[in-house]
Automatic annotation (TrEMBL):
Enzyme class of the recorded protein, top EC level: hydrolase
Protein name from the UniProt record: Fructose-1,6-bisphosphatase class 1
Binding site for Mg(2+) 2: D126, D129, E285
E.C. numbers: 3.1.3.11
Organism: Echinicola arenosa
Amino acid sequence: MKTKPYQPDHSALGYSVGVTLDRFIKMKQDDFPFASGELSQILRDIALASKIVNREINRAGLSNIGGAFGSTNVQGEEQQKLDVVANIRFSRALTKGGEVCAIVSEEDDEVIDLQNSSGKYVVAMDPLDGSSNIDVNISIGTIFSIYRRVTPVGSPIQPEDIMQPGNKQVAAGYVLYGSSTMLVYTTGKGVNGFTYEQSLGEFFLSHPNICAPKDGKIYSINEGLNSQISEGIKNYITSCKERDFSARYIGSLVADFHRNLLKGGIYIYPSTAKAPEGKLRLLYEANSLAFIAEQAGASASDGKNRILDIQPTSLHQRTPLYIGSTVMVEEAEGHLKEATV
């Protein structure tokens, strides 16, 4: 009888944990011949800050940093404690990284001039979107846009460095703090998602080359606004209901957008009687998500125009937003157009 030595199978024990965010960024650096590592460093700085914010969110109920801070931001909205914490963390990380010359934040009235004239980039951000939901343990997020400054490096920051349309973004992304924490971003070469592995302290590639469905059956809108919205949007929502579409609205922009990006759907925050210009901010909410949407094969509109083509005229400019699966966005636009004829 022939025998052979026992050789245990270790393949199940040596499974690959995947590609880290840092390694992925290094692999993709050749996509940017005009850059010499600065953009990669900014993405790393944002990832670091998001890990710190993730920690603060997870311990919010134990460390008394939930709830209202006691003041309002430039939008007239009550600031939450975690709004302030997140703004500090991201601003500090971007300042210390040394690649950014200015920051635009939802939580600050004016542009934050970092007095770093050698910085080549401007970052616009909503440090913690949907933060009022933290007290009831609902998913929230961070949204960011990265622009390359247009004035010469070494000179003081100018308004034209800030007031750039979304089609000038060099990168954009969001962080979703939910059942798992994800960082999703694009640099104009597709969209990739990374999930945070807390025990290792690393983001790992989990959703490569995200492609949004062209059509969907989910609509996301605050129907409590029904008495304030136009007939065109009412007609579109009625059409969705007649086809037994699913209504899904969390109230956290990042969470609603992320779900529809993966599953197919449309997110709508239209102009209303009380907010005729819309509610969402162009520079650091709509532009970022529109860039991601288009890179994933979806669409983003203000109801008439492509979001990325809108020229901003003020720092905290608002806009209506129709974003998601292309077929659904085009149909919503069609209902709006019909109602105005």
